[in-house]
Amino acid sequence: MIEVNGVSKIFEDSAQETKALDEVSFSCCAGEIFGLLGPNGAGKTTCLRILSTVLCPTAGEAKVANYNVVDNPQEVRRRIGFISGNTGIYDRLTPHETVLYFGKLYGLSKSFLKKRCDEIYEMFQMTDFIHTLNGKLSTGMKQKVSIARTIVHDPPVLIFDEPTANLDILVAKNVLNFILDCREKGKCIILSTHIMSEAQKLCDRLGIIHKGKLLVQGKTEDLCAQYDCGDIEDIFFSLIDSGF
Ligand SMILES: Nc1ncnc2c1ncn2[C@@H]1O[C@H](COP(=O)(O)OP(=O)(O)OP(=O)(O)O)[C@@H](O)[C@H]1O
User: Fold this and answer.
1) Which InterPro entries match (predicted)?
2) Which residues line ligand 1 (CB under 6 A)?
3) In whole angstroms, what is the distance from residue 174 CA to residue 211 CA?
4) Which CATH superfamily is domain 2-241 in?
5) What separation in Å is there between the alpha carbon of 51 and the centre of ligand 1?
6) Positive or negative: CA dihedral 187, 188, 193, 199
7) Is residue 68 over pLDDT 80?
8) Ligand 1 atom nearest to CA at 49
9) Ligand 1 pocket test: which of 9, 18, 215 has the largest number of ligand atoms within 8 Å of its C-beta?
10) Model pTM?
11) Which tens digits make up the pLDDT trace of 217-235?
């Protein structure tokens, strides 16, 4: 459902040129969680922005649900939910108004929207605050609203950019359980994080990205065996120490 082939991205301005992605290739299928792991500035967000059609690659090709992200951005957007740790929400709307607004933008019918709202509010334990202004909510509550509005159309592909950033362990667990539940339902999930233990627990396969290059990818246990390391963190340091 997600195919990334030789994707590079160069940001250019008058002062400098930054190669944020350097010929990155990977894939992720339905019912799978693929983790993109790397330190600050590795290129994770750039890669996810390309998949969500916000940025165009400088070279290479990316497809979501068989649609090329450059040629068919509208079809891609219909099929994805892009969830980031710092997506803004309108302070003067309530969570319910926010979710309804985005549901209408996706062209959902009234009956589907009502059913979907009930399902989402129960899943994220939101019922107590769906009529409180967003501006008065805590960070964790806002993150729930942010997720709710991006999954209201029940997309088959979910793209999570550091979904648990700034959340306490209770809300983070709620979000992580939601991700696992999505896998159960056959969604194709790509997740970026720099929390290696989180990735190891959640992901079926993962890739380590550093300075725009995807250094390795595979199942955690296979990578651990290949690099003779106990966990992903050790593999990461072993790669860095060997000069990547
Ligand atoms: N719009 C932009 N213009 C210029 N450079 C950019 C832009 N966006 C990202 N970059 C640069 O591209 C590189 C990769 O950034 P990116 O945000 O993809 O990293 P990241 O792995 O998501 O990092 P973090 O974990 O800190 O969010 C960095 O050097 C960053 O400064």
Assistant:
1) AAA+_ATPase, ABC_transporter-like_ATP-bd, ABC_transporter_ATP-binding, P-loop_NTPase
2) 11, 18, 20, 38, 40-46, 194
3) 31
4) P-loop containing nucleotide triphosphate hydrolases (3.40.50.300)
5) 15
6) positive
7) yes
8) 18
9) 18
10) 0.91
11) 999 889 888 888 888 888 8
Other Cβ atoms less than 10 A from the Cβ of 226: the count is 11
Where along the chain do its domains lie?
2-241
ipTM for the complex?
Answer: 0.96
Please state the rounded mean pLDDT for residues 126-146. Answer: 93
What φ, ψ does residue 204 adopt, rounded to 5°? -75, -40
CA of 20 to the centre of ligand 1 (A): 6
| Cα torsion angle, 90, 146, 38, 158, sign | negative
C-alpha to C-alpha distances, 135 to 83, 87, 125, 218, nearest whole angstrom = 19, 14, 18, 42
Atom of ligand 1 nearest to the CA of 38: 21
Backbone angles phi, psi at 10, to 5 degrees: -115, 125
Tell me how far CA of residue 228 lies from CA of 38, 179, 224, in angstroms: 20, 29, 6
CB neighbours of residue 70 within 10 Å: 14
